[in-house]
Design goal:
- By secondary structure, this protein is of the alpha/beta class.
- The protein has 2 domains: 126 residues, Rossmann fold (3-Layer(aba) Sandwich); 105 residues, Rossmann fold, CATH 3.40.50.
- It is built from 8 helices and 8 strands, in the order αβαβαβαβαβαβαββα.
Length: 247
């Protein structure tokens, strides 16, 4: 007679997960915005601890700045994880809230919890919605940087294009008429390249979509919300595995 299947404890569904969100940029106002968006997104399903790295660029716009931020992100992740462990409230998962994902490999190497990144989460989500994706972001150097990331994921052949919006990324946080028009036009341009899914990428563009007067007739993915969805899924899986093992 076969054994009955294991049943997960009911408390997994009702106990909020604990999530560490790290802004790899040093702009504290952006961290506050990301934290607020995450708490609104999760409601009672998660407790969010959002932190700003202590050194590095205000907003990453080059490979050199990403290298500095990677150092800051790794130090911050280790510190915050250790503090949470010492307090008896360890995190269930960590999110690097930066599309360039600075230092993500090192963070995964150093932490025992799952670690999600915005680019990886958004691209994998896009592949579940269509065949070819395009990415809209801010900064003239980002297309080259993103091509390197996409090659590492092995998904370059599915990318229809990378579109770089002009100006400083932090200017887009204000949702001015000029930035709204620029993002809207870039989405249309992405569809014209043959994309059947478009990713709006970067921490500065998190939560931007409701500001647009219209969206193209293809799925449009907010990279931050894709990452929030994935980090919560990873946290749930991690907690289920720990509970099944009795830890």
């Amino acid at each position: 007679m076969s054994a009955a299947p294991a049943v997960l404890p009911d408390r997994l569904a009702v106990t909020p997960s604990r999530l560490l969100v790290i802004n790899g940029n040093t702009t504290a106002d952006l961290t506050a915005s990301l934290a607020g968006q995450a708490r609104a997104f999760f409601g009672d399903a998660a407790r969010v601890h959002a932190v700003t790295v202590p050194f590095g660029p205000a907003y990453i716009a080059s490979r050199a700045q990403a290298a500095v931020s990677a150092h800051a992100v790794c130090e911050t992740a280790e510190r915050e994880a250790a503090l949470a462990e010492a307090a008896g409230e360890p995190f269930d998962a960590c999110l690097l809230a930066c599309f360039g994902e600075p230092g993500i490999g090192a963070v995964r190497e150093r932490l025992r919890m799952p670690v999600a990144g915005m680019a990886e989460a958004a691209i994998l989500t896009a592949l579940q919605r269509g065949d070819r994706y395009a990415i809209v972001t801010v900064g003239r150097l980002w297309p080259g940087m993103l091509r390197e990331q996409i090659r590492q994921l092995g998904l370059e052949s599915r990318c229809a294009g990378l579109l770089a919006l002009p100006g400083n990324a932090l200017d887009y946080v204000t949702r001015s008429p000029a930035t709204i028009a620029a993002v809207g036009q870039a989405l249309d341009d992405a569809v014209a390249l043959g994309a059947d899914v478009v990713i709006v990428a970067g921490a500065a563009l998190a939560g931007f979509l409701p500001s647009l007067p219209r969206l193209p007739a293809v799925p449009v993915i907010d990279s931050y919300r894709a990452a929030l969805s994935q980090v919560q899924a990873l946290a749930t899986l991690e907690r289920a595995q720990r509970q099944a093992a009795g830890r």
